[in-house]
């Protein structure tokens, strides 16, 4: 499988998981069961007035990707670039699509992504993300809060396709989430994805190597403990049933969302099976669906995603275009004088 198929699989897989979970994000398992039957939700159902609607998770993931691509352009044109600062600027563009005004008044609404009108829609945006982005007064400044909500995990997958995924993802998570568990879990997630795409590691190998390299860092304690727990569950053959996921936690916080996504991906018999397991529980179904979808899509490529989910997926064309742009640029943030790509330059103004 080539790199583009993995990138597309990752981004579209995440969006599909997000869309499957969207109608049940705020439902307890009992309600999901009562509405959709014993297996829970197994197909797209209407949310936000349509079938296949993505949520804030995919929106913010796309703007994170935009920030990374602009950081690449800026690196070539200026030779220096503060990557989290450029991602921050992109996330502030997202904030403006939600009809909020940031304290930073110099946000430019340029580039192609923000002009996609379908993105200008509120999909239950996370309150921590909103308040942190509204309050920040400087591009690249870290959030002044103690939140470890999963908002710093659910948007960082695109960091996997650029060098130093762990640090870039953790720093970009920290723009909105000040608790170390919140942003370190994001770093671990991007690092696991990077090992799969760059070295073709299996998911369990990638997790083991990521934990070996980053698991002892300060701030990683909670994430490490719960990820090791689901690794053990999976080695013991325990499959993620809704009640078992509820025992583990709701996934509203970073380390739980990551662990639920990992558990469902590790035990999946197919893309479909893993993503269905990941959204059927009482917690943050769209985010855990997105995390499992990223993990499965990057391993098995876009081919593994059922057509009945890809066809009605909102913003499918935008997501594919972003994946293709990521594949076109070098994964290293090139320093001044790197190779020039006119089209990328135009789409991601950064100079
Ligand atoms: Mg959401």
Mean pLDDT: 95
Please name the CATH architecture: Orthogonal Bundle
Low-confidence stretches: none
Class computed from helices, strands and strand pairing: mainly alpha
What small molecules are bound in this structure? Answer: magnesium ion
- Give the SSE order as H and E letters: HHHHHHHHHHHHHHHH
CATH superfamily: ADP-ribosylation/Crystallin J1
Large-scale geometry: globular
> Using only CA atoms, what is the Rg?
18 Å
Distance linking N and C termini: 34 Å
GO molecular function: hydrolase activity; metal ion binding
InterPro entries: ADP-ribosylglycohydrolase, Ribosyl_crysJ1, Ribosyl_crysJ1_sf
Pfam families: ADP_ribosyl_GH
Protein name: Crystallin J1
Q: What does it look like?
A:
This protein is mostly helical. It has one domain: ADP-ribosylation/Crystallin J1 (ADP-ribosylglycohydrolase fold, Orthogonal Bundle), CATH 1.10.4080.10. Helices cover 56% and strands 0% of the residues. Helix 7 packs across helix 8 and helix 11 packs antiparallel against helix 12. The protein is globular. One of its GO terms (molecular function) is metal ion binding. Its cofactor is Mg(2+). Keywords: Hydrolase, Magnesium, Metal-binding.
């Amino acid at each position: 499988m080539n790199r583009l198929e993995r990138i597309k699989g990752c981004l579209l897989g995440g969006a599909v998981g997000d869309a499957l979970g969207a109608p049940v994000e705020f439902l307890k398992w009992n309600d999901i069961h009562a509405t959709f039957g014993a297996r829970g939700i197994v197909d797209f159902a209407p949310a936000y007035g349509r079938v296949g609607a993505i949520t804030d998770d995919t929106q913010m993931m796309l703007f994170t990707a935009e920030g990374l691509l602009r950081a690449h352009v800026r690196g070539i044109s200026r030779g220096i670039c503060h990557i989290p600062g450029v991602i921050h600027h992109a996330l502030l563009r997202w904030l403006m699509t939600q009809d909020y005004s940031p304290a930073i008044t110099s946000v430019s609404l340029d580039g192609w992504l923000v002009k996609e009108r379908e993105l200008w829609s509120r999909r239950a945006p996370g309150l921590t993300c909103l308040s942190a982005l509204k309050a920040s007064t400087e591009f690249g400044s870290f959030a002044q809060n103690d939140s470890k909500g999963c908002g710093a995990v659910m948007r960082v997958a695109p960091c996997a396709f650029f060098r130093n995924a762990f640090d870039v993802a953790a720093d970009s998570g920290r723009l909105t989430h000040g608790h170390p568990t919140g942003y370190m879990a994001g770093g671990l997630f991007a690092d696991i994805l990077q090992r799969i795409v760059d070295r073709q590691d299996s998911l369990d190998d990638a997790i083991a190597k990521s934990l070996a390299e980053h698991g002892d860092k300060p701030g990683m304690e909670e994430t490490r403990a719960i990820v090791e727990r689901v690794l053990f569950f999976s080695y013991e053959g325990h499959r993620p049933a809704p009640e078992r996921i509820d025992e583990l936690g709701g996934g509203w916080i970073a380390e739980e969302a990551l662990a639920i996504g990992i558990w469902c991906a590790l035990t999946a018999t197919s893309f479909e099976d893993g993503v269905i397991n990941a959204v059927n529980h009482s917690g943050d179904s769209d985010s855990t669906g997105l995390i499992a979808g990223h993990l499965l899509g990057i391993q098995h490529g876009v081919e593994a995603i059922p057509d009945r989910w890809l066809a009605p997926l909102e913003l499918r064309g935008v997501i594919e275009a972003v994946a293709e742009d990521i594949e076109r640029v070098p994964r290293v943030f090139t320093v001044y004088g790197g190779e020039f790509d006119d089209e990328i330059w135009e789409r991601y103004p950064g100079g």
